[in-house]
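User: What would this chain look like folded?
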Amino acid sequence: MTLRGATADDLAAIMMLERTSFPTDAWSEAMMREELASPHGWYVVDDVAGRLVGYAGLRAVAGAKDADIQTIAIAEASRGRGRGRAMLRALLEEAERRGVTDVFLEVRADNPVAQTLYVSEGFAEIGRKPRYYQPDDVDAVVMKLDLRGWHGAQHPSSPSAESRIGQTAAWDGGVCT
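Assistant: Here's the prediction, encoded as structure tokens.
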């Protein structure tokens, strides 16, 4: 598994996976292009031998203490191998580097696999948005993670998140190490 920062060159492959993963509510190509170009966005792709099998995105406005997981998608044939968890952790580490303390996300109420992943990383349900996902009329489960608590659980003997902000040791040349 090779995680690297997403670029505009990945847009076509991301959109193929977006449309396959979210057939009824996929983002438009224009929306995804804007996300990849935004200074507030940070996207990673999972590249296997030059083939994109996953992508994930974070939105963290400069100076804000909260951030949002925008999306995580994995090709069906590549699911169940820890790729979603690896991308989620990469997003959380980036949020930590940006000084974020709370991370939010919405997940479909009919997606128990994703909900289980998020709970296992420390996210907790804080609310629901009725009929959020259209046209399917599926509720969104709103979840929140205290990033300081997550960091402590992941790295109990390492320096505090505050002392690691701005460090890029986890990323070497755009590849997750």
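DSSP finds six helices and nine strands in the chain. If you want, I can go into more detail on any region.
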